Amino acid sequence: xxxxxxxxxxxxxxxxxxxxxxxxxxxxxxxxxxxxxxxxxxxxxxxxxxxxxxxxxxxxxxxxxxxxxxxxxxxxxxxxxxxxxxxxxxxxxxxxxxxxxxxxxxxxxxxxxxxxxxxxxxxxxxxxxxxxxxxxxxxxxxxxxxxxxxxxxxxxxxxxxxxxxxxxxxxxxxxxxxxxxxxxxxxxxxxxxxxxxxxxxxxxxxxxxxxxxxxxxxxxxxxxxxxxxxxxxxxxxxxxxxxxxxxxxxxxxxxxxxxxxxxxxxxxxxxxxxxxxxxxxxxx
Length: 284
Prior knowledge:
Elements: E1 7-12, H1 20-31, E2 36-41, H2 47-52, E3 58-63, H3 67-70, E4 77-78, H4 80-85, E5 90-94, E6 97-101, H5 104-119, E7 133-137, H6 141-152, E8 157-162, H7 169-178, E9 181-186, E10 198-201, E11 221-224, H8 234-240, E12 245-246, H9 248-264, H10 270-280
Parallel strand pairs: 1-2, 1-3, 4-6, 7-8, 7-10, 8-9, 10-11, 11-12
Antiparallel strand pairs: 3-5, 5-6
């Protein structure tokens, strides 16, 4: 009997733009694994039926929003990080059980550490570069992951700019659980807090463009989760000030690195994955 090749996929709707297959396929090739990784269009109302139909060939799933929250009641267990932020971007499939993980948090941590090293002229920034003051733009699931990432990076005071400050309950819950000093501000006040040591924009591409004209003279580090056609003008405006900034491709890389390690049980080939990603977007 011929064994089925192992399978994994990224789910979402729409999903055709996803670069996750580029990263995972590059990893499988480098690791010598004859595995298959696809991008599959799955809506929120189709998710339960889809995961129930998976057979033993499946090893894992990557999830985009809103599936990161929709998957939670379908999991058999979840990591502490998933429990904290209320979002799972990764599902491991083992022995008929679904195990939820969140690699977005450590993906942001690793991305910001890389940017800190770049800001330091290539010198290693150490495991915990100092970011006493941080700002998050947005208040959704990605913002919750950003808050947890900033906690791991040692942020002392975090400002979160929300379109509706009254909807900051989840962020306040997380900050309370983690013992963080979180201050919710309105979207119109965000420009007062762009001088933080690190700024993470978690809003859709273009939503923060209004602040491109408010970049301070000596800004800190910026990580914008948007990339590609969704990218706005904040990253270019940041770089025009001579500061270090990255779009969401850096986060996409690092969250996929941990996904590959979780799904394969082996160290992910970071250099090969990065080269494949940059080549796919014409930056190689």
